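#struct-pred
JK: can someone run the complex with magnesium ion? inputs below
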Amino acid sequence: MCKATIFLDMDGVIADFAGGAAEIFGYDVEEWPAGVYDIAEVFGESEPAIWDKIERDAGFWVTLKAYPWSTAIVDLCRKNGRTVIASSPSRDPASLSEKARWLRVHYPDIYEEGAYMFGPAKELLAGAPGAVLIDDNPKNIESFEAAGGLGILFPQRWNDLHYICDGYEKYSHVRDRLREIIGDCITGGQSGGGEKRKT
Ligand SMILES: [Mg+2]
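RT: done, structure tokens with the ligand placed:
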């Protein structure tokens, strides 16, 4: 496959949602239990209580940090296919607008291109030509693949690839999986972990 449409998740891939949430709950993200995706289990509070606290934290979504590897991952995707940000907002409508603002701040060219889709039903994107989803949520990968797309689980401490901790290793994993999918059309082999975030 040489013509890929790469859908790139935000939270947990290029935007540090876990770090932002951990800050609210006074939790050390380094202590995150390996392979546990459920934030209620991690923070020891009910899901509604967690979302309520996040909702009350005005500007939560727009102030999330980019990861050190974010720009390298975005560049890798853009070199290897049509790249579209695919992100699911929370139930708080502010999340939707703040995510758009986050994108405008960190990746203004993607924002200007309108290369983003905000909504929870990512599997509906699986019908795009050569559709690939890069996402840290195994359920999203599962439903995207069930709908006919190809998924790349982004390594994070809360999923099955929790043992891939280093930024460069995460980058290499995505690059290698893209190489398997796209074949010889893949480009990019530079370091992925050392870049400073933009803001
Ligand atoms: Mg995510």
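RT: quick notes.
The two ends are 35 Å apart (CA to CA).
Strands lie at 5-8, 82-87, 116-118, 131-135, 150-153.
JK: thanks, will look after standup
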